[in-house]
Amino acid sequence: MSTSAQNPWADPLPKPAEELKTYLATLPDFADSKRMEVRPTHLEHAAVGWKNGWIVKAGATFADDERTKMTGSWFCLREESLDKARERLSKDVYATGGAWDMSKATITPVAVAKH
């Protein structure tokens, strides 16, 4: 799939963004998450994903309203299929570097409202 083994977000979109499907992914962290260790690389890679149009919106999830502990991530992303969305997320450094527990990830097709 990816032309970049290091950054799965480095590929150009295979077709115009409006022709791709949109997915909402919730990606919980492992209890002993390595999130902070790989975070700089994740943020660097994700910036490329934003620029290339894969990522619509994204951010962290938290344990409480005070945001005292990150518990995972959420993504609204573009992709050609549900399987390809899971594959691309599985190659993110948070997945390969021990932050996300991909066995508990949920990825759902969604529509993004126009505003």
UniProtKB/TrEMBL annotation:
Origin superkingdom: Eukaryota
InterPro entries xref list: Dimeric_a/b-barrel, Sec-metab_biosynth-assoc
PANTHER family xref list: PROTEIN YCII
UniProt xrefs under SUPFAM superfamilies: Dimeric alpha+beta barrel
UniProt-recorded name of the protein: YCII-related domain-containing protein
